[in-house]
Amino acid sequence: MLLVTLIFLPIVLLYTAWVYKVLFGRITTQDVRNPDFY
Hints:
It comes from Sphingobium indicum BiD32. The chain has helices spanning 2-23, 29-33. It is mostly helical. 0% of the residues are buried.
């Protein structure tokens, strides 16, 4: 079980960091003030 954790934990962490980087773009103050911005 430890071996599985050592193999898959870095994969999951790298994937999570990649998704966070891709999906969260820069938000400007103009975006925040826009009531239709979702």
